[in-house]
Amino acid sequence: MATASEATGTDTGIFFNIQRFCVHDGPGIRTILFAKGCPLHCLWCSNPESQRFEPEVAFKRSLCIGVKQCGLCLPACPHHAIAPHEEGGVAVDRARCDNCGLCVGACPAKALVFLGRPYRVEELVSKVEEDSNFYWRSGGGPTISGGEPLAQPRFVGSLLKTLKSRNCNTVVETCGHFDLDSPDADEALRNTNTLLFDVKLMDPVRHQALTGQSNERILSNLLELPRRHPHIAITVRTPVIPGVNDNEKDIGEIAEFLRKVAGLKDYELLAYHGFGAPKYAQLGRRYALSSLKPLAPERLGELQEHARKILAQDQARRITNG
After folding, report:
1. Of 140, 130, 79, 88, whose CA–CA distance to 111 is shortest?
2. What letter does residue 296 receive in the DSSP assignment?
3. Contact at 8 Å (CB) between 107 and 90?
4. pLDDT digits (tens, 9 = 90+) for 1-50
5. Residue 297: enclosing H or E segment and its boundaries?
């Protein structure tokens, strides 16, 4: 699998989506730029197309016209990775596919699509500035999401610096697993107004098993960030996954840890959803949590209140001590 440095050049970054008029990923109305590639592979990830750094081909079976009516993708593939499927349409052999994308160009129905491509800084800035009228009215701006934006630190640092020079309010969504000592990451953070920082679990063994990485660097970064970048407003967020961390113990442990984070702006719990499940099939992967049901809103509210009570202890202590 390609690394961030292999997948991107010095002047380009790999991004796979741009969403406009969003209101849940930072203040005001936001334009979200999704960077490709992430060091974590969470079992519940709703954007599996964000995990790998390199562009890749997805197959949307419901759009396929069929071999008899079309079949143009079969001869277009130089590796014979596409073949007729017994239930109609075609099938993609992922072991043969090298994501060259030639089949995408041959597919008139757009059943085969390319996820991710290189962008230059000015190209993305131009996309953001198309929405500038909505920003000054709402206090919004661009949000760099992923994947993990800081896994492409040189490009994202340059992108954020340019956006700040255009007076944009900048937000970065991060899983927290990045090199805080990197000069490129430092450049990115110096040009970030708000950081939406994920903390999923405190138990390092469970974190490793469920995300593919230890949480040691994540927690260390969160404690150090306010010292190095006190200008950043940090909101910590936890995706609440049924059967994983949907209990007072896990949420309470996170809230207790957050009492150590200087200048924490807010702590939010995010409800699990399975909207990304169909994307796994489109990429030839299996979604491990297909039978999982979302948490009841009332239960999410109880856990949010539990966390707030723990965090409020410090506020009460500061008021008491004057």
Report:
1. 88
2. P
3. no
4. 344 443 444 589 999 999 999 998 999 999 999 999 999 999 999 999 99
5. helix 297-320
Does one domain contain both 68 and 200?
Answer: no
Q: Take residue 322 and report the two structure tokens written for it.
A: 């004057």
- When pLDDT is cut at 50, 70 and 90, the band that residue 315 belongs to is low
Mean pLDDT of 258-281: 94
Q: 319: exposed, middle or buried (C-beta count within 10 Å: 0-12, 13-18, 19+)?
A: exposed
pLDDT band at 314 (very low <50, low <70, confident <90, very high): low
Range of the domain at 253: 4-53+117-320
pTM: predicted TM-score of the whole model, two decimal places: 0.91
Residue type, 177: H
160 and 136 in a single domain? The answer is yes
Q: Residues of 134-169 as b/e, b for ≥16 C-beta within 10 angstroms?
A: bbeeeebbbbbbbbbbbbbbbbbbbbbebbbeeebb
CATH assignment of the domain containing 46: 3.20.20.70
Q: What percent of the chain has pLDDT over 70?
A: 94
